[in-house]
Amino acid sequence: KLNSDISFDAEMDRMIIVFDADIFEEKVKDFDEVVAFGENNNILGISNPAFELFLLLHYKDAYEKYIKPNEKEIISNEKVGNQRYIRNLFTQVSGINPKEK
C-alpha cells in the first residue's frame, strides 16, 4: 500500500517478508508453497531458528551492546528456564515477548 509519509522508490527499494519460521510453519497451510513463491520473487527472508536475533539487530548498537558480549550464549542458544537464550535476551532488551500475538 502506498503511503505518502514513507519515502519508497520503486526503482531502488524492495519490500520483503521476514517471518519466524518455527511459528509460521505450524500455522500456515501450504507453507512450502508460500516459501517457493517468496523465493521465486526475491521477497522472502526466513529467520530460523532465531527470529529474535533478527529483531535484536534493529536496536541501535545492538552488535556491540548485546550480541558480541553474549556471542557464545547466542550461538549455543541453550534454554534459560523455559525459553531459549536469544529469546530471553531479546525480551530483556525490548520488554516484548516476541511469541505473543
TrEMBL record:
<dbReference type="Pfam" id="PF13707">
    <property type="entry name" value="RloB"/>
</dbReference>
<protein>
    <submittedName>
        <fullName>Abortive phage resistance protein</fullName>
    </submittedName>
</protein>
<dbReference type="InterPro" id="IPR025591">
    <property type="entry name" value="RloB"/>
</dbReference>
